Amino acid sequence: MPNPFSIFKDTKYSFEGKHNYEVVIVLLYRHWFVLFTRAIAFVLLALLPLVINIFAHSWFAAYNLTDLFRLLLIIYYLIWWYSFFYTVTMYLLDTWVITDHRVIDSEQHGFFNRTVAELNLKQIEDISTRVEGFFNTLLNFGDLEIQTAGTEPKFVFKEIPNPVGIKDLITQAHNRYMASHPHDIETHENN
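RE: above sequence
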């Protein structure tokens, strides 16, 4: 039976299904600039009705549409708030965890739809990175793709910070894992 007070001792490196012998190397979110650009867009969208009101206030008053404008403004800001909350939530819930045994891709596809996939380090065949664009190059963020053995789809880490450094971390973890598990025997399972 799980301890109900475990939430007080868990850290950001704890997750469901983590083995007691497993060490988290890195926990990744999308780069902060991704959320920043979306936040700027939301600020501009929040100011849009105020600008419309400044230029069209006399027209609304002349045709007695002030109350209708206020109603539409309330509906607009409700939709704006929902969209803003959704964007921040998706940013925080899309995570990638790299441990000394596996890679975990946890992607949120809406409030009630989550996909979690994991890949053992021994299955890694190839890792590639892609940094495209001015801001991506300047701030050093981009995509990382892990090709697996077999017919499994690629693992794609989208818009992560320092993709080349993360690639090196995964490669080092893969090499350490292969050296410590020469015959693909997990020595920790009995502990």
